[in-house]
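If your schedule permits, I should be very grateful for your opinion on a structural question. What I wish to show you is a protein chain and, alongside it, a tokenised description of its three-dimensional fold. Would you kindly read the sequence against the tokens and tell me how you understand this chain to fold? Here, with my thanks, is the record as I have it:

===
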Amino acid sequence: MNKTVGLILIFIGIAMLVWTGFTYTKKEKIVDAGPIQISADKEKSVNWPPYAGGIILVAGVFVFVVSKRR
């Protein structure tokens, strides 16, 4: 079980180092006056610092190595 958790953390850590964030589009209402509705697409972004991926990667390696010793 710990090997699996370690491998998942390693994979997530590598992915977070490669991709430091992502963007998505959200439709937001600007005007909502009865039958008249005006909406616009707003681009939102989610970013994380690269060291967060490194920390998760190191934690995954640690969990994987410790689980092998048992």
Remarks:
- Residues 15 and 53 are 7 Å apart (CA to CA).
